[in-house]
Amino acid sequence: MAATSSSSGSGSILDVADEELSYGALLGRGLDMGVLMAEYLVRTGPDGVRAMARAVNLATAQDDDFELVETLGAYEHLKSAVGAKQSELACTLGDVVAADRIGRGVRVKNPQWGVGAEVGLALHASQRSGTRFLNRARILTEDLPCTRQGLREGTINSEEAKLIVREVRRLKPVNRRDIDRMLFCETHTCFGQGGAKLREMIRQWALILEPEAEVDLEERAMRERHVEVFQVDPCRVRITGMFPLEYGAALCQVMAREIGRAQAAGDPRTQGQIAADFFFESLTGIGDHTNIPVEVSLVMTDRTLYQGHPEPAVIPGYGYISAARARELFAGNPDNPLDSWVRRLYTAPGTGDLVAMDSKARLFSGGLKRFITLRDRYCRTPYCNGKIEHLDHVVQVSRGGPSTAENAGGRCRRCNAAKEAPDWEEHTVPGDRHTIRITTSSGHPYTSTAPPLPGTRQYNVRPINPADRPPRRE
Ligand SMILES: [Zn+2]
Fold first, then answer.
1. How far apart are CA 307 and CA 326, in angstroms?
2. Are residues 72 and 207 in the same domain?
3. Is 408 a member of any domain?
């Protein structure tokens, strides 16, 4: 190109007055816009990619239905190409970091330590998701050339690529490559028929090529058995689990037998209620559901407790409950007042920072872990919602960090390990609420502030008086 400035001053290549530089003239000269934009991206790096995102936001849609559908599909192609590019970048990052550390003689046994965490933070995801992304990217880039090309060309989208990687990841690289090749020889039969059929086809080929992989899968099912509890709303939790097939079958049989026995005896409960009660009783040994001995850590303000204020309270690890329910819990069971023991915690007015437990003496006589768990509630790494498994020194003891609440952060096991990557720095920052400043190995800064607790200004809201509500539309 002879020049890059626009003579019209409008900033749009479409309005350039100079015939030589107009959009039409450039296309007429056979200029490939893809090549032009690629050159722009190479020269400008991340700034150029952000400019492309702005361009996508600024581009107005046409009002022709055919064009609209075409544009929708074209953006899906763009997403696929971006997915392939991100995989490539994550792998290159791993290689660059490893080469640098081996060159410097640090972390040579596992030179990619912490790269998954760095990838996760860049993608606004947890470290676990970042590591998974990196592992998928490795398989895609090294063992599945056709899938990667299909993603770049928009033949398949990111979801299909993810499915392929998931199905072949336990196979040997040579078999991954065979399946990759077969999928794209039969593109018309493999793609466009839905994920279930694609998965079935890959599994069928995997069983022929590497039947022993199924044995590995059985072992994994046993190794990875687990049960998890999630809060779904202020009053309920969902309990999910993953079991080997034979465990699952046995559980179903026992549950069905129990339901049948109760119904035959004229039990008025629904099948679901019988199963839920049986599950609870079997695990806890408690038959009377109205009298459950619990210790609840309840974080609430004095206004909520004594003045009937509507500000919600928090049960750490589970979430918010209404002020009325918090008062009920605090009151406990009148028939057996010792059954329900509520630990009341204080929050600083305005900032919602947890300032102390019942007393300072208690805090420093072994209550520090409990204090940090209540203050942080989840792992403090940005985007990680992991459970707190480790009480971490923000500035490590080896660097002179003290064992105080200020220098402590709740962390999940993975994030606590990731911060030991070379050049990864963390320190606390003074402010309203406890704040940690994280600088990753690549030098990217992130800030983590403890979540707000009752007492924070944002909770100074009043429910609308029913009389003030606008009339309902008919
Ligand atoms: Zn974490």
1. 13
2. yes
3. yes
Taking the centre of ligand 1 as the mean of its atom positions, its distance from the CA of residue 200, in whole angstroms, is 34
Same domain, 425 and 314: no
Instruction: Evaluate whether residue 471 is within a structural domain.
Output: no
What mean pLDDT do residues 195-221 have?
Answer: 86
**Highest-scoring range by mean pLDDT, 146-150, 202-206, 327-331:** 146-150
| Ligand 1 geometric centre to CA of 414 (Å) | 6
Please indicate, yes or no, whether residues 401 and 422 belong to a single structural domain of this protein. yes
Residues with CB under 5 A from ligand 1 (ion): 379, 381, 384, 386, 412, 415
Q: Distance, CA 128 to ligand 1 centroid (Å)? A: 8
CA distances from 400 to 79, 366, 393 (A): 46, 21, 10
Gap from CA of 132 to ligand 1 centroid (Å): 14
Ligand 1 centre distance from Cα of residue 436 (Å): 14
DSSP 163: H
Asked whether residue 462 is domain-assigned, the answer is no
Same domain, 192 and 111: yes
Q: What is the pLDDT of residues 394-452, one digit of tens each?
A: 988 788 888 788 888 889 999 989 988 999 999 999 887 889 999 999 999 999 998 87
Tally of CB atoms within 10 A around 85: 14
- 54 plus 91 within the same structural domain: no
Residue-range definition of the domain harbouring residue 312: 294-350
Surface-to-core class of residue 449, CB atoms within 10 Å of its CB (0-12 exposed, 13-18 middle, 19+ buried): middle
**Domain total for the chain?**
5
Return d(Cα 228, Cα 4) in angstroms, integer.
58
Q: Locate 323 and state its tokens.
A: 């002020």
Is 199 found in the same domain as 101? yes
> Both 269 and 398 in a single domain?
no
In angstroms, what is the span from residue 123 Cα to ligand 1's centroid?
15
**Looking at 307, 325, 350, which one is the last position of a domain?**
350
Asked if residue 76 and residue 175 are part of one domain, the reply reads yes
Q: In this structure, what DSSP letter does residue 315 have?
A: E
pLDDT, mean of residues 342-360: 52
Q: How far is the CA of 256 from the centre of ligand 1 (A)?
A: 39
CA of 385 to the centre of ligand 1 (A): 6
Give the confidence band of 150 by pLDDT, cuts at 50, 70, 90: very high
